[in-house]
Amino acid sequence: MNKIKSFFIGLILLITTFIVVLLAALVYRANERTSVKSYIFQMGNFANQRVGTLQDINEISTNDLRNKLIKKYVSEYFKVIPGEADVTKRPVLYSLGENTFEQWKKTEAKTIADMSAKKMFRMVRVSDDGIMLLNKQDIKYSTKDEAESVYYEVRYRMATWMESNRMETEPIYDQGTIYLEARFKPGIKPGISVRKYLEEGEDPVGLFMFEVTNIGNKER
Question: Is 121 contained in some domain?
């Protein structure tokens, strides 16, 4: 009787061992087939602002390039990052408007510093139809050795999260208008090495002949 019990116990142990080895092999093979896929998650707000494919600079129209630079300037001008140590460290804003950077630090930067200290988060978007020329309707860039000053009315939409670390917090939407005097000429700044500039980690917007020379606000 004891021999029969021992036989069945041994058989059960053998079957259990076989199942364990089989499961271990399946897990190992499944791990070999595991792949990691990268995704870019974006917020529901402004979901149409997606990352696009790389573009050849020669295929970007003059107006499109100008609008991209204006949008970047306005975004840097108003954005708020929660808990930012020094809001005035914005090399992009400086490179796009050295003459207006000090003015920004004395005005909007103070508001941004206060909001950042309160852990608030703010994003700004500008659409192409929100950029309008005020004093020039037909600019002939190719005939100018130097970029001329042009005035723009730029309408923007703003979204502000009063608490940045709470998922259920809904943004507060607002809109306004900023007036820019800017000098723009399509192309890369002369005498600059594009490869070296980018290898040093500089923002690509600083490569272009674009400069904001005066700013003004008119809230709506």
Answer: yes
Tally of CA atoms within 13 A in the half-sphere of 99 that contains its CB: 10
pTM, full prediction: 0.71
* The residue count for the chain: 220
The residue segments making up the domain with residue 67 are 60-219
Does residue 4 belong to any structural domain of this protein?
Answer: no
Residue numbers of the chain with a pLDDT score lower than 50? 36, 38-45, 47, 219-220
| Number of domains forming the structure of the chain | 1
Position of tokens 């929100």?
130
Domain presence at residue 12: no
